[in-house]
Automatic annotation (TrEMBL):
<keyword id="KW-1133">Transmembrane helix</keyword>
<dbReference type="InterPro" id="IPR036412">
    <property type="entry name" value="HAD-like_sf"/>
</dbReference>
<dbReference type="InterPro" id="IPR018303">
    <property type="entry name" value="ATPase_P-typ_P_site"/>
</dbReference>
<dbReference type="Pfam" id="PF00403">
    <property type="entry name" value="HMA"/>
</dbReference>
<feature type="domain" description="HMA">
    <location>
        <begin position="1"/>
        <end position="69"/>
    </location>
</feature>
<dbReference type="InterPro" id="IPR008250">
    <property type="entry name" value="ATPase_P-typ_transduc_dom_A_sf"/>
</dbReference>
<keyword id="KW-0104">Cadmium</keyword>
<keyword id="KW-0406">Ion transport</keyword>
<feature type="domain" description="HMA">
    <location>
        <begin position="78"/>
        <end position="142"/>
    </location>
</feature>
<dbReference type="InterPro" id="IPR023299">
    <property type="entry name" value="ATPase_P-typ_cyto_dom_N"/>
</dbReference>
<dbReference type="InterPro" id="IPR027256">
    <property type="entry name" value="P-typ_ATPase_IB"/>
</dbReference>
<dbReference type="InterPro" id="IPR017969">
    <property type="entry name" value="Heavy-metal-associated_CS"/>
</dbReference>
<dbReference type="InterPro" id="IPR001757">
    <property type="entry name" value="P_typ_ATPase"/>
</dbReference>
<keyword id="KW-0813">Transport</keyword>
<keyword id="KW-1003">Cell membrane</keyword>
<keyword id="KW-0067">ATP-binding</keyword>
<keyword id="KW-0479">Metal-binding</keyword>
Amino acid sequence: MKRIFLLKGLDCPNCSAKIEKEVGELDGVQSSVVNLMKQTLTINVTQTAADTIASQIETIVHSHEPDVEVQEETVMNVTKSYSLKGLDCPNCSAKIEKEVGELDGVQSSVVNLMKQTLTINVAQTAADTIASQIETIVYSHEPDVEVSEIVQESYIPEKKQEANESYNNEDKKLTVRLATGAAIYAIGMALTVFAKVPLPIELAFLIVSYVILGGDVVWQAVRNISKGRVFDEHFLMSVSTIGAFVIGEYPEAVAVMLFYQVGEFFQSLAVKRSRKSISDLMDIRPDSATVRRNGELITISPENVSIGEIIIVKPGEKIPLDGVVLDGDSMLDTRALTGESVPRSVHKGDEALSGCMNQTGVLMIKTTKAFGESTASKIIDLVENASSRKAPTENFITTFARYYTPVVVILAAFLAILPPIILGGGWTEWIRRGFVFLVVSCPCALVISIPLTFFGGIGAASKRGVLVKGSNYLEALNNVSVIVFDKTGTLTKGVFNVTDILPANGFSKEQVLEYAAEAESFSNHPIAKSILAAYEKEIDQSVISDYKEISGYGISVMAGEKKVFAGNTKLMDTECIEYTTCENAGTKVYLAVDGQYAGCILITDEVKPDSKKAISDLKHIGVEKTVMLTGDDEKIGKSVAEELQLDKYYAQLLPDQKVEKVELLDSKKRPGSKLAFVGDGINDAPVLARADVGIAMGGLGSDAAIEAADVVLMTDEPSKLVDAIEVAKATKQIVMQNIVIALGIKSVFLILGALGIAGMWEAVFGDVGVTIIAVLNAMRILKK
């Protein structure tokens, strides 16, 4: 049984990990997962243990977090997913999402245009009847879309194959129809111009071509009207073209419908090209895995490989699942994950991530994650679902179109009716102007190109190794005025090295390093590891006794007959040892042997090679303030800040103090701007959550980083942040260009149409021409 508990008030990563572990060890519990972001505990438990599990969980939670409220969520809702095969209209997908979301019992509704899916959260009482209601809504907007419930994810090669066949067949059908309609239209016009055929013959050709080209549009308009949805592009096109026939502008009527369909065709191609671009980019999961079972190598689907199994990856193959290299050396192409062109080397004991291309040697890998939890799967899922988080501009355009269309229809009616009544004269000319007004006013250029631009922007960022979880975050990056950095692992390498040894009188550097290495030999702290790496010799731990770690001070140990203290100045003061203070910037380990000061070891963390250039480039592209937060001492913080030319730094901070500083900086930022925090994963989770935009650095292989942040930089390079903001600014620039182009040109043609200067041919350009221009402009983002 799957049961979900809400842990209201849980905000401690350490406690959540303990709760997850202890609950997972209870009798009958098969799996236990705490989601700190959602404050939930999800377990799979046997039926026999189900009755008593709630009280046991409450006891465990309150033993770590007494103030957390434990409530079992009553699962009254179910999640259902539907395939909308053939859906390629951003405008229609927004309407479907809205109308399905308004159905009784539906709590949430999300259409993913990239995956052509609809995902809903619906009450169990309405679950049985919801499918037919969804079909009705989808078919009212897109009659040719195939609706089917997704029971389980199909095998990947089949999905790819289906997508390609669907793409080709649809294109062929539409191309044939457009070509046939256009040919009949051209024949009719040629006979009229050159052969001077009678009007009935001309009309016959034009009506046949109109039915071929626009019959589906008119029928869709009729169906929508019968369901109470009047004001949409189908209605506009139908009324304006039929009206043009009525007033005798036969060629223009067919031309409007022809070019409208051409515009729709371009829209479809643009969406499919964007989808294909992202799909190709995300095509990092292999179709098969070679696994060793019972001494034999067999090829199976990666989904059927269990954790702990041995897989073989040959040169030229993609790594199917995350794991550890048991045998072999090779170079891995990580471009699809990180955007890096330089291959990485892997050896025995190194981590190998799914999605990387094996280039040189054969690798034997022991899997550490299931297929669905591997890095490649998580990245693909993140990018594919990014379009469900709409940017404010997208939401504005959708709302704008909803009110804009009825307004222009009413204005067109006033233009056709009021002037003849008020001014007198013939009705034909004013009705013609009204129809021109209708054609020009169609909002297709905006409702198509704006979502398409954000869609492409997320793909362009992914190509550079930057994962953006939604177009809302992509738009937010445009307004970032303050960027706050964590120091260790973000601006610096997070790899500590011994850079100097300062012995006291009577001791040599070698002796100081040896005593320090013996003292630190049982510790896993990064400082201890750096000292042991500098010593480079085997330590005889049999001579070491009475080892004690003194929290916040250092280490006490007996090395043979010698009493050794290794730690900070507080340890020296506590033990009443006279010492010489080291004034150099860095982490200091002071040594005392048998109560006598022996010397000091200086350890520093190296700044990343591109950190300084990244800070400079950020200021160049408009970031007003760069700030660093660190738990290190004042001298280290000041040294790094001065080297990188940061505007401000705060040192000696505890995790909760970092949140306080971010809140302080947030309160002082320019009104309307955003604050971004850049950290290196779960250690910075509270600050990542508090910032307007949380950015995780070095997300390659880090589940915690991908879970906690809004934007994930897949390498350890701060310069990726510059790439992210540049893509965001390019996306916003194209969006604004399309808004100005569409509204500007349409406004001009609406005025010209109302004045009688522009006719139907100009109206066609004002609608379809502008749409094609906007779509082509939107597709430029894919080249960024």
